[in-house]
UniProtKB/TrEMBL annotation:
<keyword id="KW-0808">Transferase</keyword>
<protein>
    <submittedName>
        <fullName>O-acetylhomoserine (Thiol)-lyase</fullName>
    </submittedName>
</protein>
<comment type="similarity">
    <text>Belongs to the trans-sulfuration enzymes family.</text>
</comment>
<dbReference type="GO" id="GO:0016829">
    <property type="term" value="F:lyase activity"/>
</dbReference>
<feature type="modified residue" description="N6-(pyridoxal phosphate)lysine">
    <location>
        <position position="200"/>
    </location>
</feature>
<dbReference type="GO" id="GO:0030170">
    <property type="term" value="F:pyridoxal phosphate binding"/>
</dbReference>
<dbReference type="InterPro" id="IPR015424">
    <property type="entry name" value="PyrdxlP-dep_Trfase"/>
</dbReference>
<keyword id="KW-0663">Pyridoxal phosphate</keyword>
<dbReference type="InterPro" id="IPR000277">
    <property type="entry name" value="Cys/Met-Metab_PyrdxlP-dep_enz"/>
</dbReference>
<keyword id="KW-0456">Lyase</keyword>
<dbReference type="InterPro" id="IPR006235">
    <property type="entry name" value="OAc-hSer/O-AcSer_sulfhydrylase"/>
</dbReference>
<dbReference type="GO" id="GO:0004124">
    <property type="term" value="F:cysteine synthase activity"/>
</dbReference>
<dbReference type="GO" id="GO:0003961">
    <property type="term" value="F:O-acetylhomoserine aminocarboxypropyltransferase activity"/>
</dbReference>
<dbReference type="GO" id="GO:0005737">
    <property type="term" value="C:cytoplasm"/>
</dbReference>
<dbReference type="GO" id="GO:0019346">
    <property type="term" value="P:transsulfuration"/>
</dbReference>
<dbReference type="InterPro" id="IPR015422">
    <property type="entry name" value="PyrdxlP-dep_Trfase_small"/>
</dbReference>
<dbReference type="GO" id="GO:0006535">
    <property type="term" value="P:cysteine biosynthetic process from serine"/>
</dbReference>
């Protein structure tokens, strides 16, 4: 049974009740009553699984967390208000002033801005390496961060090397797997924590903003750099990382997911395996149809991605004017900043998300003057190809 079939069966069997309402309930309450003082004490001591307060989670979120953990066969998950909320939660929960993050490969513009413009204000240093560069750690390095496939550079890093490096030095290895859920298994290559923007492929319908942190039982060598993690491990066992995230981030910073967003994300999960296979197949066919007509970027790596690298690709035009001409004449794509939708989406990178970045930053991030990011959807592939070819003729 492949990963798609495994999760499709799991999510459909676990997302609904066999007795009563098939659709999972939306528990919108901000507060929860504990019944009696002893129960309240048990809840706050972490001895009871009853909900404490919506900022720390609610039953709808808990249902989503169980389902999301199944994507990567993790030990658990924590959902957040957005994908950036997930990254911010991991960093703020584990790192402090004087620590360092090493980022490898291409990064989403929002992540890069967070690392370069905000973390230095709190004394956390970030160093950047290209996917093909030799990664050098320092005594202050506490975390390695990368994306499964660089957004929008479409670069793929050496996960084997990074996983071994993290384990050798007892530091966290965090992988943003937003673009490739079910297509890539970060835990198999040494990741300690996986983050997602569930807004993208996981939801698939541009209706529910959200993020997620998937974790496994922590490695014992992490306790050297993160002694507080050992304390949580003694109390929570395999869910130690969940305790760190909820008590050192969600409780104090409040990047919690809303119950209605959790509900919509659950609905999206029910078709995730079917959608990602179709969209990936469409992207691969579109790449083959266009690669001799224009410069097309699409990641390929059989070692890590035997079923493909997802629905994101890029068309690298010679100029902004050519990119605009293409987007003005292509009828199928929706021009938007999102990716991973069921619809085909497109956006010129340099004039939008990356408009304020410096030349050296654009070079590192793989954003050229004419780059158009494409998120291929579920439409009829022949129609997508015909539409793109017609628009390309207008450029030429």
């Amino acid at each position: 049974m492949n990963n798609f079939e495994r999760f499709q069966t799991f999510v459909l069997q676990q997302s609904a009740a066999k007795d009563g309402a098939i659709s999972p309930p939306i528990i919108g309450s901000a507060a929860f009553s504990y019944g009696d003082p002893k129960s309240a004490e048990a809840v706050f001591a972490g001895e009871s699984r009853k909900p404490l307060y919506a900022r720390m989670g609610n039953p709808t979120n808990a249902k989503l967390e169980t389902l999301l953990a199944g994507i990567d066969q993790g030990d658990g998950a924590v959902v957040t208000s957005s994908g950036m909320g997930a990254i911010a939660a991991v960093v703020s929960a584990f790192l402090q002033s004087g620590d360092e993050i090493v980022c490898v490969g291409g990064l989403f513009g929002g992540t890069y801005a967070f690392f370069t413009q905000n973390l230095p204000r709190f004394g956390i240093k970030v160093r950047f390496f290209k996917a093909d560069e030799e990664v050098v750690l320092s005594p202050q390095t506490k975390m390695i961060f990368c994306e499964s496939v660089g957004n929008p550079s479409l670069t793929v890093v050496n996960f084997v090397k990074l996983g071994k490096l993290a384990q050798k030095h007892g530091i966290l290895f965090v992988v943003d797997n937003t673009i490739t859920p079910l297509l890539f298994e970060p835990f198999s290559w040494g990741a300690d924590i996986i983050v997602y923007s569930t807004t993208k492929v996981i939801s698939g319908q541009s209706q529910a903003l959200g993020g997620a942190i998937i974790y496994k039982e922590p490695r014992k060598d992490l306790f050297i750099h993160f002694p507080f993690l050992q304390n949580f491990y003694e109390n929570l066992g395999k869910d130690a990382i969940m305790g760190v995230i909820k008590k050192r981030a969600l409780r104090d910073f409040g990047m919690s997911m809303q119950a209605h967003a959790a509900y919509l994300t659950i609905l999206g999960l029910e078709t995730l395996p079917l959608r990602i296979q179709k969209a990936t197949d469409n992207a691969q066919k579109l790449f083959l149809a266009l690669k001799d007509k224009v410069k097309v970027l699409y990641a390929k790596n059989e070692q890590y991605f035997p079923f493909g690298t997802g629905q994101m690709m890029g068309i690298d035009f010679k100029s902004k004017e050519d990119a605009f001409t293409f987007l003005e004449h292509a009828k199928i794509p929706f021009i938007t900043a999102n990716i991973g939708d069921s619809r085909t989406l497109a956006l010129h990178m340099r004039s939008t998300i990356y408009r304020d970045f410096k030349a050296n930053e654009l070079e590192y991030l793989g954003v050229s003057e004419g780059l158009v990011r494409i998120s291929v959807g579920l439409e009829n592939c022949a129609m997508i190809i015909e539409d793109f070819e017609n628009a390309l003729r207008k450029v030429q």
